[in-house]
Amino acid sequence: MTLLQAIIMGIIQGMTEFLPVSSSGHLALFKIMFNVNTDTGLLYDVMLHFATLIAICIAFYHDIFELVREGFAILFTWFRNLIIFFKNRFGGGSWEPYEKVVTNSYRKFVILILVATVPTGILGVVGSDFVEAASLTLLVPGICLIVTAILLFIADRCEGGSKGPAKTSYLNAFEIGMVQGLATLPGLSRSGSTMTACLLCGFDKKFAVRFSFIMSIPAVLGAALLQLKDIGDYKIPTGEVPYYIVGMIVACIVGYACIKTMLIVIRKRKFTYFAIYCLIVGVVSLGGYFLAGK
């Protein structure tokens, strides 16, 4: 992999991970078009995903700090309730009431993310082989980019609602988690599909962005860790180490800028431009598949 390829892939990952145009689809198209080595591409994909996770943590540092703090508080509450259970069951004394677990919006937010992660993880593991095979052809990314375009047209026509963490049901979180699981398909935008799902569920627009991006952290982290086992004994060539580092820095900076852009896009309902772009790229990809046969 050359320095130019590393930088271009970093830009693609940073832009398309957060803009609703599918990072996996664009990276798959890039690697097919420029014959990027498969092992190198897989390892670099993992590193780029870690870079974009850093961008999310920077952009939503306050929310993430509160979620981590309240997550530990939930664990302590569950542990205390477990002690209370055994005291009530075997203590022989007076019955002691259990402590309430969800006491504020951030604790509810934590539970919603956990609920959403379950279907995402199941679909990700079950469909991993298909997703890997789909990334090697222009057909699936092309079809999924057209589906993404349709979803974005729908998103632009959703008024949204007023739901924040407190009003969001666990069923809503599970449904959005299923959508995120399906969005592992190359060409199906994770951010575009999950934000469309959030808006259809009546989420407040700002919360839709926060939930869509923050819920991706455990999913992307888990997917990246699973990919590591497929890399095998591959090691980065010594001369290419700086290329990988530069690419990660580029992905992080571009990703952060695109997160801020999405906050404006969803507020002003400008998804149509991205929908048109996805439609064009999807049609071109399908044309390339049928003409070139790959």
Give a quick rundown of the structure.
This protein is mainly alpha-helical. Helix content is about 75%, strand content about 0%.
Low-confidence stretches: none
The domain tally reads 1
The number of strands is: 0
Share in β-strands: under 5%
Mean pLDDT, as a whole number?
85
Termini separation comes to: 22 Å
- Rounded to the nearest angstrom, the radius of gyration is 21 Å
* Estimated helix fraction: over 70%
Major sheet characteristics: none
Q: Rough shape?
A: globular
Number of helices: 13
Helix-and-strand structural type = mainly alpha
* Order of helix and strand elements from N to C terminus: HHHHHHHHHHHHH
Written description of the protein model:
The protein is an all-alpha fold and 294 residues long. The protein is 77% helix and 0% strand. Helix 7 (139-156) runs antiparallel to helix 13. The protein has one domain (3-292). The longest helix is centred in the N-terminal third of the chain and has 30 residues, at 61-90. It is built from 13 helices and no strands. It is globular and about 75 Å long.
Helix and strand arrangement:
Blueprint: H1 3-18, H2 23-34, H3 38-59, H4 61-90, H5 105-126, H6 128-134, H7 139-156, H8 170-182, H9 190-200, H10 205-214, H11 216-231, H12 241-268, H13 271-292
Helix pairs in contact: 1-2, 1-3, 1-12, 2-7, 3-11, 3-12, 4-5, 5-8, 5-11, 7-9, 7-13, 8-9, 9-10
